[in-house]
Structures
1.
Amino acid sequence: MPPKTPKRKPGSDIRKWCAPTPPRSSTPPGGAAASQKPESFSFRGKEESTGGPVGGHSHNFKVQFDPDGQQKFNIHCDRPQTVLDAIKSLEASTKKLKDDDNNLIIQLSSKDQQVIVATHFPCSCIDMDEIVIVYQQKHQVEEAGVQWKPPVLPKDEYSVFYIDTKGGLNTASKKLFRNSKIKDFRSVCVYAKRGMTVEEAVRRDGRFIAELPDFTLTNVQDKNLVEERSQTVDGLHGKQLKLCLPKNTTKRWRSAEVKVAIALAEQQGVSVYPRESTNTNAEPNLEEIYEILRRQFPDLREWMEKVFTAKYYQTEMQKKENFGKIQKSFSEVYRLKKLFGLAQSVCKIVVEGVCTGSGFVLVDNFIMTAAHLFSRHVTEQTLDANIKVCAYFHYDQLDREADYVYFTAENKLVEWNRDLDYAVLELRPEGQRCKRRSKKSTNVPPGLLERFGPIPPSGEVCLFGHPNGEVKQMDPTWIIEKENRGKAVDEHLPWHMRTMFNLLSLRYHLSVKGIENILKDGSQADQQVTYNTFMYHGSSGSPVFDGLGRLCGLHTSGFTYGFTGENHVMECGQSLLTIFQDLVGKLRTSGKDQLLDRIKEESKKNSDLENIFSRDDQEPMDQS
């Protein structure tokens, strides 16, 4: 719950400890110069003595490093400092925390599990015996390279308020935070010294994007009550607010996005600047750019005229009807029973200190997952000495009834292929139960090798995995047919965003990522199964089942676009028959006959796999 409103005490002039607001950078979000950080506030305070309680400051709070664990560490805070500095006073923090402080999310109060604070949040604003939980993220959460070291003041000197992570007016398609994981929580807790403006408080927080345009705050209780960014924070203490953007936000960013269209045109050897103009450093005129593109790309204009038809609405309605059929298909009890039985062999992969993913049992104690989970931590086929990999089975719920089993993996990959993005690992036979008195078997679940099958040309598929490292989830969806992948790209943008510029921008971003390789005539078109799914980060390595319960793909990647990278066009799975053929060839070359014989024996139950073995026996694979 939000802290009670304290009695206000007069504070010193903000100008004594906070530098003036620097000019904001006009660099586009995620653009070529986005790495050039705008100037930031400079805070300088004298170092406090650590020899005992300072100024009567003394209170306790607790920290939990493992969100899923039970162990908590007590912190006796005897001087004004940030919450992160207080946490780092523990010896345990040297083992629990990585060096990058900017990749941390700190949750306030285990009772709420909805509010997060910045690493520079004043410890004086943390209630006695409060619990904070630390989450380590792969990507940046707070602005890097900024040392937030204002003098930490008594609690009464601050105004603390809460901003909903979902955002308010005109924020539906906008990125507000540096790290998308922030939206997993209800609100961010923002603090500021009384007398500061709302804009200063939000800008210096560090978790919002640096290129955040002009904004206002509205009261959750009264959406018509607006707080302007130029007002002080004094009246916001304890309030729940939403961040709102002006209607012309897209226009403000479009001058940056038009550079994408210019780059696309220049790739084709076409100049989009007027012939009489030689100043290419001048700010481009948007309408002039659009007109030049219309004239110089007649084929694009013809293509757009075909796209902008009344059939679009019918197409969208057809998609909804198809989805309804898929839901019906996967609601048939016998199909679900079969799928849930096979899903027992799906596991959560934890590469400790690096990332999480998903995987499944191939055969015996061997599991398959995505190779890119380890790509930066493998020398030849051996994992770095400090990398530990665990596989969690039956990880289906996160409460007192949770009863899962986990295994550690050998530090050497059995086989892997970066291009096909698969890896095979061997699990050590000694499984561990999360409950000592559990009756759950510690044996590895059955392998799914015998379920391998070809990619269907169309129809339904279903994924099982652990997105974001969460409990096991399933997503029934449908295949985007090979001949319709290009159309799926063209139709991805909502109708109201279907301008020539947006379509140009979309195609440019996706071409950079190599989407042509999986389109109808692409070099990898037949090796991929494509679909739309919510299974994003943490789902790599998930098995993709078809409507008959056959395992046809290994979920490995997806195509995104936009400066934020949060807009998903389609996701992809590698053909498991292609992977199987490559794996058999590698096992033969490396002389791993025992595993090869075991896989050959298991493949006798599957005609598709047996045909691959027969083909390779007659004509060995070229491993060059």
Note: Residues 14-247 form one domain.
2.
Amino acid sequence: MRRDSPSGPRDKAPRRSRPGVLGFLVTPFGLAVLACLGLAGWALWSGGVVDGPMARQVRTSSVYAAPGTGLDVTAAERVIGNRRLVVLLLPADTEPRTGCDKVRRTAAGTLVLGLSRTGTEYDTYSCALLPGVSDENFGRALVAETTVARGVDQFADRPLEAVKLVVVNYDMLVRANIVPDGARTVSPSLPRYLVAGAAVLIIILGSVLLWAAGRRAGRAATDRRDRIARATDARTALTAATAVFAQQIIDLDARYQDGPDSFRGEYRKLTSDHLALLDRVPHADDAEAARLTAQVETLIDRARKLS
């Protein structure tokens, strides 16, 4: 009979493959994690995480002024107010078209004017990002773009006065029904609403779960207290019955020597049943204690008849 040597080849038990990243992602929890990551990425992107300084400023303000242009941004914001107008004051000798390109998404719904000083004049470029500019409002958008910057060259060294003139031109366009009237509104992106809704939903669900867990814990504590009380009552009754029976045995023991044979036989049987019962008392639960109490009461009746 041929045997393999201890150092020879042995059959190896197949190893259980551990689920990798793909296995985790296809689980419900993994899919939920992917959904949360997608929502978070969407919120970051729509909230301007990839925006440059200019777009980030225009997202919440109607004025952007590059360093060194000399424009009082706070005063310019008060002049523009809540109009659908955005003014970009770019560094000198910069192509103003780049300003429109950088804020095209964040300044949607407004009339944008880019200003860049060139010598004693302004190089201007405006873009109407108003609704329907590529369809029925194309002509109005073209008029607005060519009119809003009219006359700003005379204030090349006073940028705040140039902004005031732009506002006057804008109001004229509104009165001529070329630019739609109304205030500019900055609304949070949809993912932010979803995140806020999810936070509220989590709070509500958390409160419901805490309430349910507290109620369940309270019910469990009440049941445990009732079981303990029932067990205590059952053992108390068993202890009292056992004490009564023990006293009867003591009283009968005094008559054992002088009693007849029938008395002695019944007494020995009674004490034997008593000893068998005592072995079960220390390990009895509440249900067993109730059964043992009934048995002890039966022994008490037998002892009473024997006496």
Note: The radius of gyration is 47 Å.
3.
Amino acid sequence: MNILNRKLGLLENLFEIIHELGGMIDVNVARIEGELTPDILQQALDLIQKRHPMLQVHIVNAEDGNYFKSEGTPKIPLQVIDKQSENQWIEIAEEELHKKFPGGTNPLCRVTFIRAAKSNEFSEIIATFHHAIIDGMSCMNFINELLSYCHKIPDGENISEIPTMKLLPPLEEMLNRNLISPNNLDEAEQKPLQEFPKPQLIIETEAPPSQRRTNLVTRIFSKEMTLRLKERCKQEQTTIHGALCAAMLLGTAKIAFKDTSLSLSCGSNVSLRKSCQPEITPESIGCFISIVEEIHTLEENTTFWDLARECKSKISKSISLGIPIARFCNESLQYVNEDIIIQLSNQNMGRKNTIEISNRGQFNLADKYGELKLKELYFATGQHWLGGSFWLGVVTFHEELFCSFAHVVPLVSAKTAQLLADSFRDTVEQACISESNHKTT
């Protein structure tokens, strides 16, 4: 491996500061069937680490800032646990969300293998990342490559010659700033980081950051329901993401609020890969994301599909104006420090949106990697320092929609989170079977 050395970019540095406080750690869970040995899994990890520069680095603090460096970085560590119960993976994933990377020369990725006793039972691969080196597409690429290597190694394929990909510069150096509306550029340069939108939030009980924990709830939409949702979105001239936003907003409003007129905010993660010059390929591992935050007013007569179209329209308009890119023109990002993050985490208990959605979209991953079968996919980031009141991570895989809901206790209780997840699912299902209220012209 070549020796790598570059300074962290604005977004990478922000995630490093939050990480050092114990937040925004990224956890991914692949549930698999089939026999897999720890030895094969470790070999596969070694190969994928050799291929991707961001898996070879650790973070070093210098007088002029934080740097990624590769010299002395050891192998990605693998922990093996013999499975004791069906839902053990949820408990371990939740623990991973709160476990900082130890520093020093340690890599910014670790893997836990929960090994089932029988090959026809689910085992789980839990991949945990420092968010400075990863985004949603990177995680999906990591899982796909890892399982592909796990399939090829036992078959004796010659995969020893793995070329290392190029280490990319910081995101802000690659962005095409011509995509930003001049007015938005001026606004981004003037708006301080501390300015949050002021929506209605869900905070049942207050607690300092040290007493908050991110917990998970999962749901799966069947193939039949997922296909029905896709078809209705097409009929209603909206997107799956627009429908997910509407379902989160309406489902949350039904459970968490009594007022019939509400001002709720929805944050959506946006990939900036296509906004870079040159465009960043899906194979590249790194953090290339931004966020769009929109306020929606819900009235008693607000309908699902009208709201879904509104969500789609507002997000599309923000992206067309270059607002996600403009965030990286904000000079205040250069001066973010731990004190500012602590201040933000104490403001509204660190809740900056009513809901937030990270939608990875549809991935046509193989369902079989030789004898291994990929059955389910989930992911989340630690929301306990900063985040939305109720967070949803979504990925569509082989026409099933996998939902990971994250909530922070005690701000939102486990009982309320279950009700919110069920309300989201019920809202989607009812919308898919209801008569259309959309009038074409």
Note: The first strand starts at residue 5 and ends at 7.
4.
Amino acid sequence: MNGKVQSIYGGPAGVPEVSQACVETLEEWLEMARAGEITGVAMAGLCHDRAARYAIGGMVGGYSMIGALEMARADLIDLARE
């Protein structure tokens, strides 16, 4: 073994890179939360090693939030199929 880990997706494993689009979206949503416009959030994120994580915080629930999550889910499925 040479000590170098290779990702099954190609390239070295464990090398984080900043996604400006991700940062901008999170900053935009954080501003909305600080202004009281958003009072709860359910989110999922893709890590640099292709693992995923999720978090739920604040006042969440209701059919409108479930609908929004279903729309995000449908968009993610479309992106995965491309």
Note: The mean pLDDT is 89.
